[in-house]
Structure formats: C-alpha cells, structure tokens
Amino acid sequence: MQRVGRVDRRRNQDIELKLLSDHPDIIDDRDDIHFWNFLPPDELEKLLLLYSTVSKKTLRISRAFGIEGKQLLTPSDDYDTLKDFNSAYEGTETKEEEMVLAYESLIKDNPEYESNINSLPVRMYSGKKKSDIKGIFFCYKLPIKNQDGEWSIDEGICKWYVYNSDQKSITEFAFGIWKEICCDKSENRILTVTAEGFSEIRKLLENYIKRTYLKSVQAPIGVKQKLTTWMELY
Which among 196, 201, 204, 211 is most buried, taking Cβ atoms within 10 Å? Predict the structure, then answer.
C-alpha cells in the first residue's frame, strides 16, 4: 500500500522508460495501475492519530536521554529519523532514495563509469579540500557468514565510515558521508596526510569495526574487514 505521491512519482514518464529499459520483463504489468481510495475505520484512525503524539514524545526523550537503535542520539539524528518515517508515510523521497537517484543519474550521464570503476585495482585513494570537516573517509568490505556457514569477504557488505580528526569521532551515517565526499570531474586531488598519520587513523577505525560490527556478528578470530578505498578530507 502506497500513498498517492509515491505512485504519482513512479508514473513519471522518464522514470518509466528507465524502469522498462532495466527490466523489460515487466512491460506487460506497467500499462495500467489499479488503486483504491478509502477512509480508515475508526479503530485505524485512532492509531494513525497516535503518530503525532508518539513523535513529540520520541523527540523529547531523545533530547533528554538518547535512544539506542538506528539513530536518535543527537538533536539532528532524531529529526532525520522522523523525517525518514514521514517520507515513507507521505510518499516523498527518503535520503536513501535520493542517493539511489543520484547514482542512476551518474550512470546515465556516464555510461562507461561502472565498467571503468570495476577495472580499477582496490585501495586506490584520493583527497579533496573541505571547509566544514577534517578527516578521512573509508570504504570497507565487511565479512558475512554465507549459507554454508563459511565466512566470506567477497560476499560481504560495503560500509562507509568517516573519521573526524577535529572531534576524534567516527560516523557511519551514509547520507551525511555522501554529501561530504561528492565531487565532480573538476575537483582538485589534494593529499596532505602522512603515511604515519594515515596508519594511526586506520588503526583507530579498524579497532572501531572490531568492537562494533565484527563483535555484533560474532566473527571468529582471523576473520577481518578489507579496506577498498579512502579519501582525505582536508
């Protein structure tokens, strides 16, 4: 069940053409759309009206104590989490959707981009000048346990991190990281971190991964993460 806003966006002609070019097998299902408009029964309406009350209480508790889980640990986090909830409810774009659409636009404007990236060796790195953050962006491949019970790094997941040198902190918020590392072809490549400085920060980051992700999945001794690329932000 979707809100009209999301259905309306999906029926955008440009999106339809892109969707059908990627998935020609569903062309027969895209000619018509069926929808029903309904007013919720009183019982459901009462539940829907609870949203406003719960939102206010969630924000109040978050600001006072912090809430374990997805985010809701800082004043900006609680807003972002509720904004994503609103997006899902109202049919507007979420942060994840914005990133996906930007990626699709990048591939559309640069058809050779994906094949070029796949042909490059791992651990290539770069750097750019930033005025509002100082640190290093890391992209790691994290191991997972496959269906055979074996740990695999090749089948693992990619995870983004940024180490903030000024605040001595690590963030995993993908949307915020994406905003920091975005650049175009005209961006100058600037590298300022020494090998010793990079090694120290990398060690801090990998200890963090060990305490968080690897511990949470109960990875055995010897199963480690794999650094694929990084970018200096100075």
Answer: 201
